[in-house]
Every structure is written in structure tokens, then in C-alpha cells.
Amino acid sequence: MKAMFLLSFFFCTILVGETEAQFAGKDDYGLEAFRQMRENDPEMFCKYITCSENEEQEECPQGTSFTAGVAQFGCCGACVRFKQRGDGDCTGSIDPNYGGGYNQIGQKSLRESIVSSGSGAISDGLPLNDNILSSSWCDYFLKCDKGSTGFACIDGSSGDRGCKYFQQQYDSFLSNPEPDPVTHYTSDKFVPFRDDYMWRPNCTQGNEFEVKQCKGPTDEERCVCVDPTGNRIYGSAFFFQKELYETMNCACSKKVWEKKQAGASSVTLHCAENGNYEPLQCEDGWCYCVDPITAETYGPNLPEKAMKLLPCYDEEKIGGQYLRRCESELHGFATLADLLKSKGVQPPSTSLNCDPDGSYGPIQFDGKMYRCYDKYKQSIWNPAGDGCQCVRDVETFKDYGLTTDVNCETNSGMYSQIQRRGGTVYCADEDGVRTGPRVYEQYEGNLECASSLRCQAGILTNCPNSCNNCPPEAYPKYQ
User: What is the distance between the alpha carbons of residues 353 and 447, in angstroms, rounded to a whole number?
Assistant: First the structure.
């Protein structure tokens, strides 16, 4: 957790084109050249600064955010702790919705707003003793506003506040537990056997949801891929899918989502079940290899007819054709539609639904009604609703030789709101993840699934009502 720089003023002097003769008689030891490089060519200057810093948000302590360009002459990043709700003496907000830090208070830049967590204001010429800094700016979703006692951080608008709002709600809730949960089981503070289902979202530096999110209690956790606002996209892995679960990065699912948002009518990238890239990828007639773990390309780009020459080609898995059944149909339709549009003809519509791995999507229209299908277009449930996620997951459980008590809605194929397991009941979300406390069956009527779903999502005002008037003995995890 150290942030430090290694810089030789003499070396820096030589690099900016100065010679020893030019500096003869000077007593600043190259400091002027140092200053000039920093002011005139900061990009070049930073190449001679060696940073030791957290490179990922996950490495920053809870309650801080990794922020680039705030330490070591603006060349290095650090974990920054921004002011929270109710904190005073603020000078702006990191949230661009509330001025991005620049407002009527003092026009302080981000670097000017930062002080070391231990020793006051940063002096440019000194290395930091740690890599955790504090800023006078308010955190995301908060704005710096003047009240009766001076400037303080308050809630912004009631609209979408981004990922960090829900993250902060979670942190505040867990940091304020009920000291005696048995006798205060209806308290609005954190009660472990009542609130064990909650999860903390992972957020980007820009206050968006990380593409990979893992939710649910540890022994029931499921990781899913989401878009920047937290909505589900293709890709998931259960904890028992060890390899998929541990290597999951959702890089392919994110790219497919971005292409579709940009208006692509046909995307031929192949994503694995967990949202990672498959090793062989082909686009617009050209093929290349991708490392599924790092999402980095390697090897040459070759025409699709020569894909067998690529180091990642696997004949047993791929065969002689890159496109799979569903996407072959869809890609052919999209090509025809583009041709008709170019000639001013309105193309026909299609209800064909493909997953990003090239297989058939879970919901297909058979000419009469929508049904749930497996990846090979075998009907597994009808009629279909909005997702078919539950019946698809049942097929996954069977593939892994697991028997589970999963309840699917008979009229949709989605997860039932109430799930039963081993004499207990609980509320579940669209992915089957528990969104409320597990209680004994006789307390099923006390469950408030709408309240628990909001609580799981970070809206914590109604958490005690997740199981309305349930005593401690209603919760088996407490026994």
C-alpha cells in the first residue's frame, strides 16, 4: 500500500537535453529543468516517475475509490476517501451531476482537494507515506451544498444515483449492527440472521456497475454479467461451476452488449457461458485468437477459410464452420435485411433469438406461442414468460448431476418468488438468488418479498419488514 517515486534529478536533466556544461555554475541541481519538463511535457515527465500503487479498485480498502492522476506530481493513482453524507467543510463533488468538483465554493481541482490521510496537505516534492488519501470533495450521488452550519455533503436528486450509492448504503448498514439482535430483531440496524442475504455491488471509478457482479450468501452465490446501470446481460456462473466461476470476467458479454447498443444487427462474437471470450473469434470474415482469461488477442488475423491454421483452432469443438445453427440463421437474415434496406425495401421481421455463444436463446416463437427452449432448440417449457431462466438453470443442475428443490413459475419458466428448501422458505430474484432471510415454512405468510428485494438492492429503509413480525426462532441460521 505504498506510493513512492524514484527520480534522479541528474538523470532527468540529461533527458531534457541539458548538458553538464549548460548547468555549470548553477546551484539548483537540475530543479529548473525538472520543473520545466513537468509544466511543458507532463506526459513525458511521468515516464520517469515510478509508482507503486493499487492497480485495481478491489485492492483499495472499503470506503475508498482508486483515482488516477492524484499523487506524485499527478502521475500516479491512489485510493481516495471522499466525504460522505453529513460531512462538513466540503469543496465540491466527484459526481459530474453536481459540478464534478468545480462549483461556487472555491473552484478547487481534484488534486487541490486532496490531503494525505495522515499528515495534511500534500507537498509535490515529497513521497507519500501510504496510498490512501482524503479529499474535500463529496462522493458520488452527493452534492456539496450550503446549510445552516456551512457547506456539507447532502443527497442529490432522487433519480438514478449510480452504483456507489447502493455500495455506500450497504457499507453504512453493516457498520451499524444491532448490539442485541435477539431482543431487537425488528431493529432497523443490521441483524445478521435476518440480513445475511444482502450483497455489496462492485463499482467502477466512474460510478457504474462493474460488468461482473456476485450476489447472494457465500454458499449460495451466483455471479452474473451486467451493463453499466446494473441490468442483467448474458453470462453467469454458479459457485459449483468452479472453473467458470473462478475465471469469469464477462469481457465478451460486455463487447456484445456494446455492439448491440451501437446498432449492430448481427454480432458473431462467441461468448462462453460465464461471459468470457471463447478462444476462437471471427468477425467480418476474419478470425483471430483470444485468451479467455485475460481477454487479450494473440497470433495472426486470418481469413475465415484459413481459421484451421490458428493456434486456438480446435476441430473437435469447432468443426469446419465458425457460425453455429442459430446465429447462422440470424446472420443470414441480417445480411438479407441489410441488402433490402440498401435498395429501399422494408425487410420482414424475425422472432429468432440467439444467445451470444451462437446457440438458441431461451425464448422462441413457434408460430403460435412463445416457449422456453434449451440451447439446441428443444422445447423444455411452455408457455414462456419474460425469461425462462429457472427452467434453463434446472437443465444446468442436471448437467452437473445436482438435484435441487427449485420452484419455477408454471406460466413463465421464471423463478417463483417464493422458494422452498429443506423445510424453509425464502424470497428469490430473477436469477434464483435469495433476496431475503431464510425462515421456517410456518412463517411463509410473513415474508414481504417486495421489501426484501429493495433491501437487497441497497434501498434499506424497509429491511426489518423482509419478514414482517418474525421472531428470532423463525430464522434457522440463528439456531
Answer: 36
| CA neighbor of 87 nearest in space, from 43, 45, 147 | 147
- Does an H or E element contain 155, and which? strand 150-155
Nearest-CA neighbor of 472 among 191, 125, 196, 255? 191
- Classify 417 as helix, strand or coil: coil
Please give the angle made by the CA atoms of 393, 395 and 401, to the nearest 5 degrees: 105
pLDDT tens string 16-49: 444 444 444 456 666 677 677 767 777 777 877 7
For 195-209, what is each residue's pLDDT tens digit? Answer: 888 888 888 878 889
Q: Is residue 252 within a helix (H) or strand (E), and if so which, with residue range?
A: helix 251-261
CA distance 362 to 376: 10
Model confidence at 107: pLDDT above 60: no
Please check whether residue 236 is in contact with residue 225, taking contact to mean a CB–CB distance below 8 angstroms: yes
**What is the distance between the alpha carbons of residues 287 and 305, in angstroms, rounded to a whole number?**
9
pTM: 0.76
pLDDT, one tens digit per residue, over 66-91 is 877 777 777 777 888 888 888 888 88
Three-state SS for 14?
Answer: helix
Which three three-digit cell numbers place residue 411?
Answer: 406460466
How far apart are alpha carbons 257 and 272 in whole angstroms? 14
* 8 A C-beta contact, residue 116 and residue 70: no
Report the half-sphere exposure of 242 (CA within 13 A, side-chain side). 1
